[in-house]
Every structure is written in C-alpha cells, then in structure tokens.
Fold this protein.
Amino acid sequence: MKASRTASNIVAYIILVLISIIWLFPFVGIVLQSFRSYRPEVEYGGMVDYLIPKTFSLDNYRFLFSSQTNFVKWYGNTIIIALVVAVIQTIIVLCVSYALSRMRFKGRTLLMRFWLILGMFPGFLTMICLYFLLKQFGLTQAGAVPGLILVSCASSGMGYYVCKGFFDTIPKSLDEAARLDGASRARIFLTMTIPMSKPIIIYTALVAFMGPWCDYVFASYVAFGHDESYNVAVGMTRWVWTNDYQGYFTRFCAGGVLVAIPVTILFMALQRYYVEGVTGGAVKG
Amino acid sequence: MGKEIANAFKEIGLAFKDGGFKTRISYLFLGLGQILRGQWLKGISFLALEAGFIFYMIKYGVSYLSKLRTLGDVETHKEGRITVYGDNSFLILLFGVLTIIIIFAFIFLWWLNIHDNYEMDRFAKIGKPLKTNKQVFMSLFDSNFDKTLLFLPMAGIFIFTVLPIIFMICVAFTNYDKNHQAPTNLFTWVGLENFQKIINFGSAGFGSTFFRVLGWTLVWAFFATFIDYFLGLAVAILINKKGVKFKKLWRTILVLTIAVPQFVSLLYVMKLFANDGLINGWLLKLHLISSPIQFWVNPVLARITIIGVNVWIGIPYLMLIATGLLMNIPEDLYESAKIDGATGWQMFKSITLPYMLFVTGPFLLTQFTNNLNNFNVIFLLTQGKPQSMSLANNAGSTDLLVTWLYKMTVNETNYRMAAVIGIMVFIVTAVVSLVVYNMLPSVKDEEGFQ
C-alpha cells in the first residue's frame, strides 16, 4: 500500500514538473530573448534558433526609452486607461449590482433578460457605429485615450453577474434592521454594503484594470494612424506583425517584459480575491 | 405583460374622464398639472423634457424620419469645382433609429405624467397629503434609489450598445459596402438580399464559406471548452492529491498565464511555432526534421496548434475553479466508497465527475458561448490564416465567425455582410444557450446534489 502510494506520488511529481516546464517556457524565453541585442554589429534581433543570447545586452530596453519610439507614451496611455477604467467600471458595477440585488422595481427581470440577450451579440459588430459616435465627439485618433475609456466604461453595467451574486449572499435581514433604524437605501449602500464587499470590489477592479492591457482590436481601430495615442498592445503588435525582419522581435520581448511585470505582480498580490470571484462566478453561472 | 399594457391604456382614458382640469391640461402640457398642485420639481422636469422633445423633433427628428424610407436621395456631386454634399445615409439611418426610440420614450413619459396626475387626483379625493418637493427629491436616495443607481449605466448601455446594435441590424438590410460609402455615396434598403447571399451556394454567394466557417467555429468551441475542462480538472485533482507537496507553487506557476497580458504571451507563442521560430529551429538543428513543420501554414495543423495553445491558456483558469469546488465535495463520500473497495478511477467516475458536471453546468455553457466568440486567441495566433482560395471574401481556415466579421469590417469595409454575420453569431449563441440551458441537470433538478 505504502509503496504504491510513493510510486504514484513520484509519477505525480514527474507530471507536475513537466507541466511547469511547458507553462514556464514561454516566459523564460521572452525574458532571455529580451536581452539579445538588435544591433547587427552585436547580434541579430530577429528570429534565431537558440534561446540564450550570445551576449547579454540592454540595447532593447535602451531603445524602448529612447526617442526613436513612443513606447513610453504608449505605456503611459495604457496605465491611464487601465486606472480610470478600473475606478469607473467598479463604481458602475457596484451600483447596478446593488440595485438588481437589493431593490425590487418594475421591469427588473425584464431588464436583466434584455441585457442577457444584448450580450449575445458579438462586440465587434458595432465597431463602425461606435467609431462614428466617438468621432462626432472628437474622441478618435488624437483623442483616442478618453474615447477608449468612455467606450469601456459605458457598457460595463452589463457585467454585473459576479458582483450581484456576491450581494445576494449578504443576508437581507441586515438591510431590514438598518431600515428599521431609519437608514435610507443610499446610506445602507454606502456605509454598510460597500465596506462589507471588499473582496468583490478588489476582484472587479482587478479584472477591469487588466482588460485594457490586452485591448488591441478596438484600440487600433480608434487610434488608427496616430502613433501617440496607441496603447502598448497596438504599438507592440505592429512590431511583431510587420517589422519582424528588421529585428523588432527582441524589442517586442523587452517591451513584453516591461508590460508583464507590473500587471503580474499586481495579479499575484491580489490572486486570492481573483480566485474567490472566479469560483463564485462559476458556481452561480 | 400584455395585461399591464392594456391597463396602462385604460388608465389614459379613465384619468381623462375622472380627472379634474389640472389633470386634463397636463395631457397637452406635460407637468403643468403637477406645477399647479405645487409639485414644481416633478412638473418642471416633465415640462423641460417635453420642450426638449419638441425642439429635437423640429430641428432634427422630422427631417431624418422623412428620409428614413429611402435613406436619402440627394447624391454628393460636383458643381463646377465645388463639391456639394448630399444626404448622408449613415446619419439618416442612425438618427432615424434614434428618433423612433425617442418617440416611444416620449409616449412612455407622457403616460407616466398622466399616471402621476391621476394618482394625485385620487389622493386629493381621499384627503391624503401630497409629497413635498423635498420628499420627492429625497426619495431618489431611498425608495427610488434604484433609479439613481441605474440611470447612468443604462444611459451608457443605451448609447453605446443598444443603439449601435439596432443600427447594425438595420445595416444588414441595406447595401452599405465599399461601393456605397457614406458620405460620398448613398446606400439604401435592399430587403433580404444579404441574407440570401449568405446561404447562396452559387459562385457569387457566401454559402459554402459561411457554413465552413460556422462548422469550424462550433468544432473549435467544443474542443476548446471540453479539452480545457477535463485537463483542468485532471490537473486540479493532481495538485490536490494527498501527499503532493508545494501545492501553492504548482498553482502559482500555472496562474502566470492568466496574469501576463495575452497579447504578450500569445504573440510570443505564435512566434515560437513560426516556421523560423525556436521550436522549428531546434528541431532542425537536431536533424529531427529536414524542413520546418508548417504549424501556421498547413490548415489542419494550424487548427490543432490553436487548440493546443488554447489548452495552455485555459487549463490554469479551470484549475482554479475546480480546486475551489473539489474542496466542497463531502469527504465522507470518498471514505465510504473506499470502504466498499472502490478504486480511484471508480471514485472519480461516480463521485467527482457527476458532482463537478452538476455544479459547473451553467459555467460550461458560458464557456462554450465565450469560445464561440473567442477573438483574442485566434486573432493573435493566426489572424484566421492560412488563407484559402476556396473560401470567399478573405476568410481563412482558422477564422471564427467573429474574426471573419472583424476582417469584413476593417479590411473589406463590407458592412452589410458583416452585419449579417453578426446576426448569425447572435442566432447561434442564442440557440445553443436556450437548448443547452434547458437540458442542464442543475436546471432540471435543482435539488440534485443538495
């Protein structure tokens, strides 16, 4: 019995180590290749058949912070978008979830069903229409950053499921007791429900913050041709797709490392809340 | 629902019959009844909205509505050397739709105003005092707090989701494409022509391409959902296994793929599998192959590689969920199974799996519909390539309906067909959701595992 358990544990460890290697390989690769210089006199910056650079250099990172590229500007744009979207989206989701979870008003189920149906339309369907709307307000090209913030925040009310599921688990008797003491709905919401909802607030804000870092499609459409208002995804994707043979691959790796570090650290620090939110959301459906 | 509407209509008549002068005057001047009763906060709001409505209709609404039938008939043309702009079909359609919605909203507002007046009439009859203006205002933070909370989110959803979706549904019935670009050219209604085109198998039709892309979309969603699900479950069980140490370390390693932005990791993986990428480079150097494996060039191989890479993305996510749920399975179920001499596989088959499927049924469904629209993975890895001569309109072998829609919008500016595909995606998603939802064990039998 004991021998078979040890044997099965050894098999388990072997599988886990193999999995870890597969999962870590791309990340190790991206870090290592970011230290390979793109300058032809040092090394070739395109695609090569070895992982570890022959000479370690910081050329790629120097390039990112030089005036040859707007990388710093893109980075700033992305941080601004991510921060503002995280704050506004969290507020909106909290408001919608509270109203749908705690208040009973006419048309409540109708509204929820309507939003569910709306969600079944593919998001990119409305791209040209949104572009046109933004253009009317001057929020494309040079104004793409506020434009993207507006679009990401405007429809965020429909993503209330996880948060409402959390509010539903807070006993209603608490609300009723506070109402008997004469507290208004607004007061209950602000001074009771919100302080109790720290995990779900962190989850919502974290997910909202991480979204803009990956936003390629709509961002590239809205900012088209205006380099200064790109975000990192738009700017760096171009390096991979069009300029690969001029050695932009290693510069992409270096940029990727700089993008991944803060987001990954933040995510790892708040991982507990993310797991709670995701698991809760999955069971609630 | 029907009954409520009937009652609302009845109330319009009753209020006019029973109501006094103040109620009747507000049929024409919204809010005047309230103002005459001293309810100036509500009254002025109603009156201002009515004024805004009339202003909008005179300034824009009427002219757009009148052109909505043809979507404009004055072409942009040149007079001598000056360009004279004609009608803009895009604007006419967008504002035409908006105007219709505004008219319905105004009718609702009008009814609300009558309803409010009628109620105040009845209050007066039984001698009940009306709310003061302050009470009306303060109710926005108490009994009417839902309206305060939902106003901005709903306005945002209306302008940036509802209106554009209705607009695009309308576009599916027009000939808005690269030959009919507003504002230079007009576009107009063409009825069901676009829908006929998408199911037309002739040389001019999109039929064969559409059904091939749809087929791959469904196959992809099926594999992406279930392979990830079962492998994720397996990994979670492996990490949870008694005697396996460093549980947290294994989980953290896996979770990295969620933490790192997908455009970084997926683009890197894309290059990893490229013909001149690291994997092919190594294999060539070791003389295991003589020419690069065409990961992204061979259609079948590209599809398999995409599903494989998606496993890399998907497992950590499912591992997290499964880990949380596995802990909820009562330990004594396993204990008693062990006493009965069940093997590990038997326990998995008859305890773990049924429980997991029961609890995560709705989640699997949302995963499936999300995968139907999984833009990022496909777009960052292949952009729908490899292209194929046998597919119409630039569709590639790994294109999903959504990525095809994207190409149709951005590269081809074929908005009419993009709109049709969007509607098709909606129909597929809705049908799958409805059919599967009603088959779910947790829906059919809520008590199942409690």
Notes: Chain A is about 70% helix and 0% strand. The mean pLDDT of chain A is 87. Chain A has two domains: 2-63, 68-284. The radius of gyration of chain A is 24 Å.
